[in-house]
Amino acid sequence: MSYAERLQKRIEKTGSRLCVGLDPRPGDGGAAFAKNFLTQVIEETAIWAAAYKPNMAYFEAMGIEGIKLLEDLLAAMPSDVPVILDAKRSDIGETQKYYAQGYFAGWNVDAVTLNPFLGYDSIEPFLDWEGKGIYLLAVTSNPGSADFQRQKLADGRSVFELVTALGDRAKAEGRATDVGYVVGLTNAADVLEKIPDAPLLVPGLGAQGGDLASLAAAGRSAPDVINVSRGILYAADERGFGKRARDWAEKISAAYGK
Ligand SMILES: O=c1ccn([C@@H]2O[C@H](COP(=O)(O)O)[C@@H](O)[C@H]2O)c(=O)[nH]1
Fold it and tell me: Does this entry carry the keyword Lyase (predicted)?
């Protein structure tokens, strides 16, 4: 089964497009505290999770213990929930081979985020993995997405369309790995129509203030997932993680109309 099919199956089973972001702040309790914290988050949110997205930065900030924590969590993750490792890697192909091997074979994550700035040969080592997916940063959720990604080329296209061209090329070549894109909800409005079919990973809901209306208007049918991290892990309210996740999942479903 391809990554996109597995994700679609999970979306249908849960009725949710919520991707739960696992961004543990390395507080006073360190990795031991973070392990209990995230174990509870996962237990309480699993029925609403179309996917989980651990972000490498938060684990790396805890040093070797953080990496060990990530490995333990990945090993204990509910087997029917796809895991998207938010690593945003980018390097020459020779080195990317080892990232691909480490993430897909070693840690067995389902998908990984990549920075496409080094071009097609830099993503190639990730393209021949049956059942796996990559998400290329296309239009990120930060204001700086205007600096490169939204710039116009002489032929009228935007720079992010050069990124989607990489995915089109992989598809035309019949590569095994599914290629999707990261599109920040805060900057999604006029972008979605240009990426109709590919799976999207959409951060920016919750703490970053993204508005679901743009997704609703686009009437999408791809296996998109919408990420919420701080809005579940660190919201300043009395609800538990499960209730926060359910509320986000319901808001997302209402916006999609399905
Ligand atoms: O364009 C991007 C790409 C990645 N992210 C990551 O998603 C989460 C968002 O966290 P929130 O707390 O829900 O804002 C975080 O891991 C980012 O590094 C993004 O926000 N935008």
Answer: yes
Report the complex ipTM: 0.99
> Per the confidence metrics, is the pTM higher than 0.90?
yes
Give residue 175's pLDDT band: very low, low, confident or very high (50, 70, 90).
very high
Separation of 142 CA from ligand 1 center, angstroms? 9
Tokens of 191: 């972008």
Q: Are 121 and 165 in contact (CB under 8 A)?
A: no
Domain total for the chain?
1
Confidence tier at 187 by pLDDT (50, 70, 90) = very high
- 230: domain CATH number? 3.20.20.70
User: Percent helix, strand, coil in the chain (nearest 5)?
Assistant: 50, 15, 35
- pLDDT, tens digit, 9 for 90 and up, residues 23-41: 999 887 899 999 999 999 9
Q: What is the pLDDT of residue 206?
A: 94
Closest residue by CA, ligand 1 atom 4: 203
* Catalytic choice (9, 88, 97, 194): 88
Q: What distances in angstroms separate CA 62 from CA 39, 59, 74, one per listed residue?
A: 17, 5, 16
List the one residue out of 75, 71, 84, 74 whose CA is nearest residue 6: 84
Task: DSSP letter for 153, please.
Answer: P
Domain extent for 125: 3-255
Core vs surface per residue 179-194: b (16+ CB within 10 A) or e: bbbbbbbbbbeebbee
Residue-level length of the chain = 258
Pocket of ligand 1 contains residue 184 by CB under 6 Å: yes
Does the Cβ of 115 fall within 6 Å of ligand 1? no
- pLDDT tens per residue, range 46-99: 999 999 999 999 999 999 999 999 999 999 999 999 999 999 999 999 999 999
Distance from C-alpha of 190 to C-alpha of 192, rounded to nearest angstrom: 6
